[in-house]
Amino acid sequence: MVASTQIVLASRPVGAPTAANFRTETAELPPLADGQVLLRTLYLSLDPYMRGRMSAAKSYAAPVGVGDVMVGGTVSEVLESRDPGLAKGDVVQSYSGWQTHQVTQAKGLRALDPDLAPVSTALGVLGMPGFTAYSGLLKIGRPEEGQTLVVAAASGPVGSAVGQIARIRGLRAVGIAGGPKKVAYLRDELGFDAAIDHRAPDFADQLRAAVPDGVDIYFENVGGAVAAAVYPLLNTYARVPVCGLIADYNAASAQEGPDRLPAFYSRILTKSLTVRGFIQTEFVREMYSDFLRDMSGWIAQGRVKYREDIVDGLERAPEAFIGLLEGRNFGKLLVRTG
Ligand code: NDP
Prior knowledge:
This protein is α/β, with parallel strands linked by helices. The protein is 27% helix and 25% strand. It has two domains: 2-124 and 306-336, Quinone Oxidoreductase, Chain A, domain 1 (Alpha-Beta Complex), CATH 3.90.180; 128-281, NAD(P)-binding Rossmann-like Domain (Rossmann fold, 3-Layer(aba) Sandwich), CATH 3.40.50. Helix 2 (128-141) crosses helix 3 (157-168) and helix 2 packs across helix 8 (284-300). The longest helix is centred in the last third of the chain and has 17 residues, at 284-300.
């Protein structure tokens, strides 16, 4: 009998999650049936969408039940297999959640080749976040050479890929991030044309100065004060792929203050803006194989770089996740469990 250490949702957060919203448990796993595998988690991906799953509010995906294992993408090793397609020792991309072991169906697991790329990249630049950047930018952003793109959360897995793909397509890429280290990384290591700290008191002025020709694509990752500073800078026919609104994920109530919706709609109308939300799964069937081909090539050529922020030990997942929502991660946040 194999036991799995699991982190379950103990209660639903109101506002920012705390350690008390999580609980560690141990569960004995059932014996394998035909077509099943026993997996040991090597890496667990921590992603902003998990804040939505902790809430009971209606969304595009069902919430995690109180007492259930937190969901999440994983890279796992096959410890035992009763499926002809997978063998002991294989490494797969799975959706095992916040736990050390899992018994699951082999069907649907993607085998990874550790010789092609570090297996952890299947959760970052060569996985869901990288694909989000690729599909949202190319499909909704419709990049054109010589235009200007702005993206926030720009040192993270989505934003860093958005900016670098934009540069490959011949755009001017302006990245927004929190703090001087992240800003220096965008400018000096990733080659963004400009990088700005959204916590700087003169952030809006710095941003305006960094986009002398206005903004043609605003890849929306954060919302909040950053979006408020970008919107007045949008050019006629600008595109806004709405990917994420992390500035509001911990909001416990509607914001006080004037109703900005009429001004927002007016700008959409008078500037002929395209504002289009998306969930990356929409484009998987159509674009995933192109993404894997292009992104692997760009990484091999050194045209796309990535950074991982690895935390050791499943027990540190709650603290690391709470930090993700506050910008304490620097790069794709992963928990190494193996
Ligand atoms: P990151 O690893 O970039 O982590 C989130 C970052 O958001 C933090 O590190 C922080 O960076 C930034 N942030 C947090 N609060 C604020 C704020 N108030 N203002 C500005 N920035 C803030 O995350 P990902 O790259 O994984 O995800 C980026 C966005 O993409 C998220 O909104 C996520 O929900 C969304 N997403 C959407 C998908 C889709 O299908 N639509 C799929 C995957 C992700 P900093 O220190 O720089 O402020």
